[in-house]
C-alpha cells in the first residue's frame, strides 16, 4: 500500500477536510468568544445541556430512520459486541498502565482512561464527516450502548466506593440519548416484519417507497424535518461548547502536571491504538470483522478526551478532584489537536483492504 497516496486521497475527500476544518475552527471560535466575553462563564454548560437533552437524542433517533440491510445489521451487531468487549479490555489493561500509582490516584486515572467523551465529542464529529443520517451515526449510537452500561455501573462503583444505586440505574436507562437510541434501534430492526403496518411514502430522491408506517423520513417529512434540524445542531453546538469551556479554564496548572500529560497520552493515543490492533486481529481471524466505516467510527469515538460524567464522579466523590479537572482539560486540548490525525489514520487503515 502506498501510504503517501492514501493520505493524499484522504485529504482530497471533501467530507473529511470539511469535518476537520469545521471542528477546529468552531472550537476556536467558541474559545475566542469566551475569552472576549461574548459568551458568559456558564455558556458552555448551557450549550452542553442543549446538546445532550435535545440535539443528540434527535441525531440518534433520526439516524435509524432508514432502510435496513443484512450488511448494516451484521456490522451493527459486531459494533455492539465490540462496544462491550473493549470496555472489559480497558478495565483490565488500565491496571497495568498505572501500576506505579496507588489508591485514589490510580482508580481515578483508570476510570478517566476507560471512558471518553464519546457522546459529546465523538458522535458530533462522526456526524460531521458522514452526515447526521448516515450508517456511521448508527454505528456510533450502537457502540455507545456498552459505554453507558459500564460508565453508570463500573465507573460509578469504582469512583464512589459504594454499591450500584437505583438512582444511577434510572440515570442510565432514562437518559434521553439512551431512550432515543434504543427506540430508534428497535424500530430500525423490526421495520420489515410482516406484522408491522406499511404505507407508501417518498424517499430522499423523491421515489415512491413502501415502508413501515413509522418511517417518518418517508411517510411524515413534516415530523422528520424538525428532528433533522435539531440533529444538525449537535455538531456546531457541541464544538462551540467545547471551545467555550476551554476558554473558561486556565491551562497553566494543567500543563505543568506530569500525571495529566501521561494520562492524556494514554487516553488520546494509546487507547485508540489498542482498539486498532485488536480490531485488526479480529478482522484477520474473521472472528469479529468490522467494515471500514465502522472502524473509522470506532477510532474517532475512542480518540476522545475525558468523559464529563467520569470527571464529575471524581469531583463529586472528592477523589483526586484537581487531577481530574487538569486531566480533563489537557486531554480535551490534546484530543482537539490530534483528532485530524486520527481521522486521517482511520481513512488510511480503511484503504488497506483489511476492513471491508
From TrEMBL:
<feature type="transmembrane region" description="Helical">
    <location>
        <begin position="16"/>
        <end position="34"/>
    </location>
</feature>
<feature type="transmembrane region" description="Helical">
    <location>
        <begin position="46"/>
        <end position="68"/>
    </location>
</feature>
<feature type="transmembrane region" description="Helical">
    <location>
        <begin position="136"/>
        <end position="157"/>
    </location>
</feature>
<feature type="transmembrane region" description="Helical">
    <location>
        <begin position="80"/>
        <end position="99"/>
    </location>
</feature>
<dbReference type="InterPro" id="IPR004776">
    <property type="entry name" value="Mem_transp_PIN-like"/>
</dbReference>
<feature type="transmembrane region" description="Helical">
    <location>
        <begin position="294"/>
        <end position="315"/>
    </location>
</feature>
<feature type="transmembrane region" description="Helical">
    <location>
        <begin position="268"/>
        <end position="288"/>
    </location>
</feature>
<feature type="transmembrane region" description="Helical">
    <location>
        <begin position="237"/>
        <end position="256"/>
    </location>
</feature>
<keyword id="KW-0812">Transmembrane</keyword>
<dbReference type="GO" id="GO:0016020">
    <property type="term" value="C:membrane"/>
</dbReference>
<dbReference type="Pfam" id="PF03547">
    <property type="entry name" value="Mem_trans"/>
</dbReference>
<feature type="transmembrane region" description="Helical">
    <location>
        <begin position="169"/>
        <end position="190"/>
    </location>
</feature>
<dbReference type="GO" id="GO:0055085">
    <property type="term" value="P:transmembrane transport"/>
</dbReference>
<keyword id="KW-1003">Cell membrane</keyword>
<feature type="transmembrane region" description="Helical">
    <location>
        <begin position="111"/>
        <end position="130"/>
    </location>
</feature>
<protein>
    <submittedName>
        <fullName>AEC family transporter</fullName>
    </submittedName>
</protein>
<feature type="transmembrane region" description="Helical">
    <location>
        <begin position="327"/>
        <end position="349"/>
    </location>
</feature>
<keyword id="KW-0472">Membrane</keyword>
<keyword id="KW-0813">Transport</keyword>
<keyword id="KW-1133">Transmembrane helix</keyword>
